[in-house]
UniProtKB/TrEMBL annotation, chain A:
<feature type="transmembrane region" description="Helical">
    <location>
        <begin position="236"/>
        <end position="256"/>
    </location>
</feature>
<dbReference type="GO" id="GO:0055085">
    <property type="term" value="P:transmembrane transport"/>
</dbReference>
<feature type="domain" description="ABC transmembrane type-1">
    <location>
        <begin position="94"/>
        <end position="309"/>
    </location>
</feature>
<dbReference type="GO" id="GO:0005886">
    <property type="term" value="C:plasma membrane"/>
</dbReference>
<feature type="transmembrane region" description="Helical">
    <location>
        <begin position="185"/>
        <end position="205"/>
    </location>
</feature>
<keyword id="KW-0472">Membrane</keyword>
<keyword id="KW-1003">Cell membrane</keyword>
<keyword id="KW-0813">Transport</keyword>
<feature type="transmembrane region" description="Helical">
    <location>
        <begin position="131"/>
        <end position="152"/>
    </location>
</feature>
Automatic annotation (TrEMBL), chain B:
<feature type="transmembrane region" description="Helical">
    <location>
        <begin position="92"/>
        <end position="113"/>
    </location>
</feature>
<feature type="transmembrane region" description="Helical">
    <location>
        <begin position="203"/>
        <end position="228"/>
    </location>
</feature>
<keyword id="KW-0812">Transmembrane</keyword>
<feature type="transmembrane region" description="Helical">
    <location>
        <begin position="261"/>
        <end position="280"/>
    </location>
</feature>
<feature type="transmembrane region" description="Helical">
    <location>
        <begin position="23"/>
        <end position="46"/>
    </location>
</feature>
<feature type="transmembrane region" description="Helical">
    <location>
        <begin position="162"/>
        <end position="182"/>
    </location>
</feature>
<dbReference type="InterPro" id="IPR000515">
    <property type="entry name" value="MetI-like"/>
</dbReference>
<feature type="domain" description="ABC transmembrane type-1">
    <location>
        <begin position="88"/>
        <end position="280"/>
    </location>
</feature>
<dbReference type="Pfam" id="PF00528">
    <property type="entry name" value="BPD_transp_1"/>
</dbReference>
């Protein structure tokens, strides 16, 4: 490029020697200008990331080793971590959260996949069924949870669920008032609210499976079940494993369900989740530093989980 | 013939048209249609009618399927008592603002990362995508502390709509979606515009944006619904009764308000999103799968 400009420039200006330098400088200026334009387009988003994402990440770790009292901030080493681990609800919160995650994984992972496989077979009313599954996802969670709290989980027989159970001749439940039912009831509400997205994502994946694979399997004499296990599942494995990970990370952040359905902790701490404990410490016990420490613990746990999960998945391939 | 061209799924189409297959297909379809309607519309029906019942009727056993003595005044009471007009306006205002900020700043950033590619662009992209690994709730405390006292500027954004709008811009997923779409715009088209003397701004405005309408629609829908559905963040940064969002307002009032009135408010809060969904359902559902999950 530089060489090509030399003759032209030489003839025009009549002094061949400085031309390449000029050209190079012009090019450098141009590149600088291009870079500056690029940064100008980036600056708004970068500032927002810096203030509200990157900086808080560092700040979270830093403040978990500090203590602010009456405007005075001091370094306190692992004190915050010790205090938060010794909170009587600490282990209960983890236990509850893990229990919720496992239950939600069973319900929120298997059910949407089954529904997607079923819906994918229908040649009628496709649009209607899709709109239906996704409808609850659009509700503000607070709205949906008040519906569950007041109208469905009413512990008397006036509630929707108890009257259905009674109508079917089944024993009724105390729902949120019973420590055993608290978690399953929260999983039920949460699955109803959130399942739609997963169903639609699975449906899209199912539609990408080439029809010939089923054709071939059928010619080989594979029945319905064999076709599911030998074609459908292997063909959607990538998305299935990705969704499982995303779901675990999402359900571990359980918060609004206990807050609204169980007024936070629930009876005998049966609903306390890790994020609810963060919220408690941060905003009711005036302990933002302890809350930040719990946030860091949770971050390490989730990243650890993701790393192990990704590794196991890679080994399988 | 048209049916033949459709790719087959688990069960072949021919099988579903003959004898036993046909019977099973139609029975299953009917059962699923009824069950889905009951499971997904049923609760909404229960909610709308539950809010019409009087308090004694709400506590009655067995519950009535249709309110014996409908009380539409529950809705007007919810509207007045919770000042729902104000709450709806606030939520709407935050959602639209977040949408505008995201559309302008995230589109510009994605365009820079995809087409202008300044030095360090990839590093910046990497740092942005890294935030996707951090679960939102984990950052809530340091984010709150940052918003109370913004570093360098030393101002507090509490009760200011910027505390919702600006963090919304830091959305790596949207930038990723936009960038990926921009990447698919052929380079020839871009260089043709440059040859015609169009600067980057003009190329973005008259070439890139018009082609990108579908993805801009998807990002807009995500932006609006995210603000409408959010709860903990607006609860923390918009604590005053005057600045609350609708979800937070209903929660705040739920303690001292009769159940039927709270449910009526919850119904009103849900109407805008439901209407929004029914209008944009096609784009919303296609947008969900645009998230790069298939490739």
């Amino acid at each position: 490029m530089a060489i090509a400009t030399v003759p032209g420039a030489g003839i025009d200006v009549g002094s061949p020697a400085p031309a390449p330098v000029d050209a190079r400088r012009a090019r450098r200026n141009r590149r600088l200008k291009d870079n500056l334009t690029g940064y100008a387009f980036l600056i708004g988003a970068v500032v927002c990331f810096a203030f509200f994402s990157w900086y808080p990440m560092i700040r979270g770790v830093v403040m978990s080793f500090q203590r602010t009292r009456a405007g005075e901030t001091t370094w306190v080493g692992w004190d915050n971590y010790e205090r938060i681990i010794n909170d009587p609800s600490f282990w209960t919160a983890w236990q509850n959260t893990l229990y919720f995650t496992v239950l939600a994984l069973v319900a929120g992972y298997a059910v949407p996949f089954f529904l997607a496989v079923l819906l994918n077979e229908f040649r009628h009313a496709k649009g209607y069924l899709r709109i239906l599954v996704y409808l609850p996802v659009m509700l503000p969670p607070a709205s949906a949870l008040f519906l569950f709290k007041y109208l469905a989980y009413d512990p008397s027989d006036a509630g929707l669920f108890n009257s259905i159970l009674k109508g079917l001749g089944l024993p009724t439940s105390q729902w949120m008032q019973s420590t055993d039912m608290t978690m399953p009831a929260m999983v039920l509400a949460s699955t109803w609210m959130n399942m739609g997205g997963a169903v639609l994502i699975y449906l899209a994946a199912l539609q990408n499976i080439p029809g010939e694979l089923y054709e071939a399997a059928e010619l080989d004499g594979a029945g319905l079940w064999r076709r599911i296990t030998n074609v459908t599942i292997p063909q959607t494995r990538l998305i299935l494993s990705l969704m499982a990970m995303l779901q675990v990370v999402a359900t571990m952040q359980l918060f609004i369900e206990p807050l609204i359905l169980a007024n936070g902790a629930g009876s005998e701490d049966s609903a306390t989740s890790v994020v609810y404990l963060i919220y408690q410490h941060g905003f009711f016990q005036n302990d933002l530093n302890g809350a930040a420490a719990l946030g860091v613990i949770m971050l390490v746990a989730l990243i650890g989980f993701s790393a192990v999960y990704a590794r196991l998945n890679a080994q399988q391939d | 013939m048209a049916q033949q061209s459709e790719t087959r799924s688990l069960v072949s189409f021919a099988q579903l048209q003959r004898g036993r297959g046909k019977v099973i297909y139609w029975t299953l379809l009917t059962v699923v249609l009824i069950l889905f309607t009951l499971v997904f519309i049923g609760p909404l029906y229960w909610m709308v009618t539950g809010a019409l019942k009087s308090s004694p009727e709400l506590a009655q056993t067995p519950p009535t399927l249709w309110p014996a003595d409908p009380q539409p005044e529950n809705y007007s009471e919810a509207w007045n008592r919770l000042d729902l007009a104000k709450l709806l306006f606030n939520t709407f205002y935050y959602a639209i603002g977040a949408l505008v900020f995201q559309l302008v700043l995230d589109t510009a950033a994605a365009y820079a990362l995809s087409k202008l590619r300044p030095k360090l662009g990839n590093l910046i992209l990497g740092l942005m995508l890294a935030t996707l690994m951090i679960p939102a709730m984990v950052l809530i405390i340091p984010q709150y502390v940052t918003v109370i006292d913004l570093p360098i500027l030393n101002i507090s954004l509490i009760d200011s709509p910027f505390s919702i709008w600006l963090p919304a811009v830091a959305n790596a997923f949207n930038i990723f979606l936009l960038k990926r779409f921009f990447d698919s715009i052929p380079e020839d088209l871009m260089s043709a515009a440059t040859m015609d003397g169009a600067g980057p701004m003009r190329t973005l405005w008259s070439i890139v944006l018009p082609i990108s309408r579908p993805i801009l629609g998807v990002v807009s829908i995500f932006a609006v619904t995210a603000v409408w559905k959010d709860f903990l963040w607006p609860k923390l940064v918009m604590p005053s009764p005057e600045t609350r969002t609708i979800s937070v307002g209903i929660y705040a009032f739920s303690g001292g308000t009769p159940q039927n009135v709270v449910v009526a408010a919850a119904v009103i809060a849900a109407i805008p999103t439901i209407v929004f969904f029914l209008i944009f359902q096609r784009s919303i559902m296609s947008g969900l799968t645009a998230g790069g999950l298939k490739e």
